[in-house]
Amino acid sequence: MFGGKCFFWSRISTLSSPEPEPFTLPAPLPKWPKGQGFAGGIICLGEIEVVQITKFESVWSCSLLNDSRKGAAFYKPIGIPDGFFSLGCYCQPNDQPLQGFVLAAREVAAPDAEGSHFCHRNDSPALTKPVDYTLVWSIDDWNGDIHDGCGYFWLPQAPEGYKVMGHLVTKKPGKPSLEEVRCVRADLTENCEANCLILDVNSKSPQKFPFWVWKVRPSHRGILGKGVSVGTFFCSSSGDELNIACLKNLDPNLHAMPNLKQVHGLIRHYGPTVFFHPDEIYLPSSVPWFFKNGALLYRKGELDGEAIDASGSNLPNGGNNDGECWIDLPNDDQRSTVKCGNIESAELYVHVKPALGGTFTDIAMWVFCPFNGPATIKVGVLNFSLSKIGQHVGDWEHFTLRVSNFTGELWSIYFSQHSGGEWVDAWNLEFIEGNKPIVYSSKHGHASFPHPGNYIQGSEKLGIGVKNDAARSNFYVDSSVKYQIVAAEYLGDGIVTEPCWLQYMREWGPTIVYSSRSELEKISSLLPAVIRFSVENIFDKIPMELSREEGPTGPKEKNNWEGDERG
Fold first, then answer.
1. Domain end position, chosen among 219, 248, 277
2. I need a surface site. Which of 302, 386, 390, 462 has the fewest CB within 10 A?
């Protein structure tokens, strides 16, 4: 806390910069099929209802003088419906279109006829005004003169039994009105965590008044997570522990989730076109095509494989990956043919699940390839095609669409990339045919990327690592028409029938362990001694999945089946 004084910060420019344009999807949203609460604008979380506010008034922005592209813009939500209250301000990097939200909340007065609203658990109201504000940080010119370019960051002080959802930003040093924001009763909240640094002001000058701003998200996420992202930010000038919370969805029925007809409508409207590299050899296929064309089930201790029914009905179901069974390619002349897949039969396998406490829907789309090809190592301008590292039978890859349950708007896509991945906001996607994004599948490895290019898994700065080439070609799958919904647990029993093969929890390919170091050491021996040590250090960080020939387990064995995506 700095009292009311405003300090000059030599690394920040407070000069006005062009306001970012609000982002809109390329095409208008359709009229979604009728349902319960999906895309209805308001979501009930139990004792409170929330709306998603996406209209903002700019309050303050700044850029770091050593890099004008790095900075942040801070906004106050506007257009809040009558009866709803702000929970905090919004912040985003200032080098991208305006795409974000904060939630506004109102207390539910009483249960309705169907009992979808909840009675108070105690006599305390769900929402209340703060009792005061603490100045977290401020900036002004060196002599302390006040002007409109100055930003002041306030943390509301919640009364006992309540928690704060976000900070306020003002242009003037006076404390905001206590009517500006509401605190939420503690039992209606969940813990949250900082997950992305937006602004880092950490000067090396004698006047050390650092300032950090982070995005936040619920700590417990996934299918069972009740935490609801408020869309606000956390800021600190002293490295304090996170002192804001997120909301909790106490409605067990998740009324805002889409019904099955609405899910089909979402996929038809947003289903990405997946482009494979023009030089791709190992293309996708449907799972039934893989089985019908000779894939074999092997059991531990038995030499001969067993033919697999097209539906996978004779695969062992349930349990876990105990190493007792695995699938392999046919061992006859069909082997090389099946390796290359059959793109005409390929379809995306869809898992629909609640996200962020049921305020968003995640549509995870899985693509199956009978074979994953060997990797290519890039060292500067040199490319080394490997003979073994990276290859395995049976390749499951995925990407995930995140859709707002307030409006049905596509918000972001998660691109899975080997052992990691990244969330990419809708403004940074490529679209084709209206609001259908493009997903680029990398050559041989089938990792997903939002744009064409040559991606390095290792050290981008040094240009050393596993090379992922992604480009558009005539090899593609349109997931808006070629898909099968295989799971949507929240819809209840009997709505979606899971295919037999989805219950197979063992490996979709044999495990063949070999020394990956021999290939990597051969590459190192060809390099100048001055860079050899750096290259070997990066090789040591290559994911373990690339150091052995091992078929992956199926979608249901992945952590993201019930949990949130990494990143």
1. 248
2. 302
Closest-CA residue to 62 (of 167, 196, 194, 200): 200
pLDDT value at residue 319: 87
Q: What is the pLDDT of residue 477?
A: 98
- Quote the pLDDT of residue 64: 66
Asked whether the beta carbons of 315 and 504 are under 8 A apart, the reply is yes
What are the φ and ψ backbone dihedral angles of 219, each rounded to 5 degrees?
-70, -40
In this predicted structure, what is the pLDDT of residue 103?
A: 98
The amino acid at residue 116 is S
Among 248, 275, 297, where does a domain finish? Answer: 248
| Residue 155 sits in the same domain as residue 265 | no
Gyration radius of the chain's alpha carbons: 26
How many other CB atoms sit within 10 Å of the CB of residue 65? 13
Alpha-carbon distance of 390 to 427, in angstroms, equals 32
Q: Are 444 and 390 in contact (CB under 8 A)?
A: yes
Among 410, 325, 336, which Cα is nearest to 371's?
336
Burial per residue of 340-361, b for 16 or more beta-carbon CB atoms within 10 angstroms, e otherwise: ebbbebbbbbbbbbbbbbbbbb
- Taking the C-alpha atoms of residue 187 and residue 124, their distance in angstroms, rounded to an integer, is 11
How many other C-beta atoms can be found within 10 angstroms of the C-beta atom of residue 98? 19
Amino acid at 8: F
Per-10-residue mean pLDDT of the chain, 567 residues long, equals 36 55 95 94 97 96 66 95 98 93 89 50 88 88 42 96 97 94 98 92 58 94 96 89 95 95 98 97 98 96 94 93 92 92 98 98 98 78 66 92 98 91 96 97 95 83 80 98 98 96 94 63 64 60 55 90 90
What pTM was estimated for this model as a whole?
0.90
- 183 exposure class (CB count in 10 Å sphere: 0-12, 13-18, 19+): buried
Report the DSSP beta bridge partners of residue 205: none
The structure tokens listed for 71 are: 């900075």
Backbone phi, then psi, for 557, in 5-degree steps?
A: -90, -5
> Do 547 and 428 reside in the same domain of the chain?
yes
CA 44 – CA 50 distance, rounded (Å): 6
| One domain, residues 471 and 545 | yes
> What type of residue is 117?
H
